[in-house]
Amino acid sequence: MSKLNLKLLGPCLLAIAIDAMGFGLVYPIMAAIFSDPHSGIIGPGTDPHIRNFYLGLGYGVYPFCMFFGSSLMGELSDGYGRRKILLLCVFGLALSYLLMALGALVPSIALLLIGRGLSGLMAGCQGIAQAAIADMSTPETKAYNMSIMSMAFSAGVIVGPVLGGVTSDRTIAPFFNYGTPFLLVAVLSVVCGLWTYGFYRNAVAPKGATRIDLLLPLRIIYEAGKHRRVAFLSIVFFLMQVGYGLYLQTIMLVLQTKFQYTSSQLGLFSGLIGICFVFGLMVIVRLMLKVWGVIEIAKTGLLIAGIAQVLSALLPHEGMLWGLGMIVGCFDMVAYTTMYTAYSDAVTEDRQGWALGVAGSVMAIAWVVTGFLTNLLPVLGELGLLMVGGLSFILSFLMMVAYGRKWSIPAVAVGSRVYE
Fold it and tell me: Other CB atoms closer than 10 Å to residue 176's CB: what's the count?
């Protein structure tokens, strides 16, 4: 397979794009739904504490379910085959977005939250699709296929928020509403499922029935705590993800309350951040690797993203927020990419999958925490919570400085002993 085989890889690439699209699409819509007194989800006279609680629940239920669902679906795909579990995840996503659409249209908080939680359980589709692409790749085509996979993810990150913002804005078209973007993603998921059913076949034979370990994510975290380098990196990564999670959730509220942004404007802002993600990944990281090592690049990304977020809280002018948002998005991706590389460098070759699984679990926990930190909005306000996120980024930078002083070289194995 010297060139991209769209018939075989296409369903997997679309699944990756849908997963990335759905993640970015939800945040501007959630901020709009729970802040709009005319959405019907929460009455205009509702106590702000109740409103913030449900908004935080809407944010936090996804990563909480993803924490368990991602590793569970990965295990099942090894045992029962990529095709069956990918179909389960993609059609599960279709159902989850249909429930969210109904929740926005009825309106019903319960349906919205159930759909949001189900989408978290099905979030393993991206990892399964990535594994499926790796299964179908040869040594000659693997690098090319992985680059195409990154492009599919990047496209989803950019298109998702813009699609969600524009198609939920009634001022653009009278038939648009808060349920429209959820319905569109549900339809795309059904298309992906039918494409997968018709053309994708397992490239690697399934292992057969496997024992389901629901506590696997908790065991992964427990084991991480016993590995000094991974445990230290996990603290850094947790603080970083809390920082960015607070930024993404809070900046939407700042733009909406301070500048009366519509959902389409929030979507365009999120789409711009997605473009900056791609620029940071494809351009900035590659340029920095010519000069610095992984740890230095990670420290730089964490510091610049943190400073830009703090400045967003101190200088909440519309133009500044857009400019600083581009910096946060770009250097958050710089830090994110190199943090995963640092995890990889922290362990020996036989523990790569475990280390990256730890990173995924830590990220899920951090996003659960940031979801519930929205309950501090009545105390700190939007700008105060934005500042907390920026300080969390800077604290992660200081921790990474300490990590670099203690461990500056990759872990190596000599005999049966691992030198950290």
Answer: 17
Which residues lie below 8 Å from residue 373, measured CB to CB, with a gap of 6+? Answer: 56, 242, 246, 385, 388
**Token reading at 351:** 């523990």
Distance, in Å, from the CA atom of 213 to the CA atom of 215, rounded to the nearest integer, reads: 5
Instruction: Identify the CATH homologous superfamily for domain 1-214.
Output: MFS general substrate transporter like domains (1.20.1250.20)
The encoded tokens of residue 397 equal 């930078």
Least confident of 42-51, 166-175, 386-395: 42-51
Residue 418 bridge partners (DSSP): 413
* pTM of the predicted protein model: 0.82
Task: Provide the token pair at 284.
Answer: 């900035």
Evaluate whether 386 touches 251 at the Cβ level (below 8 Å). yes
| Token digits of residue 8 | 């075989």
pLDDT at 129: 80
Tokens at 123, concatenated = 């979030």
Rounded CA separation 4/17 (Å): 16
CA atoms within 13 Å, Cβ hemisphere of 129: 32
R_g of the chain, CA atoms, integer Å: 21
Q: State how far the alpha carbon of 81 is from the alpha carbons of 15, 75, 201, 372, in Å.
A: 16, 10, 9, 36
Q: Which residues make beta-bridge pairs with 412?
A: 419
> Start-end ranges of CATH 1.20.1250.20 in the chain?
1-214, 216-408
Residue 228 near residue 402 (C-beta atoms within 8 A): no
Residues 47-51: contacts with CB under 8 Å, at least 24 apart: 48/377, 48/378, 49/375, 49/378
Comparing 96 with 37, which gets the higher pLDDT?
Answer: 96
Please report which confidence band the pLDDT of residue 414 belongs to, taking 50, 70 and 90 as the band edges. very low
At the second CATH level, the architecture of 216-408 is: Up-down Bundle (1.20)
Return the amino acid letter for 233.
L
Q: What is the pLDDT of residue 210?
A: 64
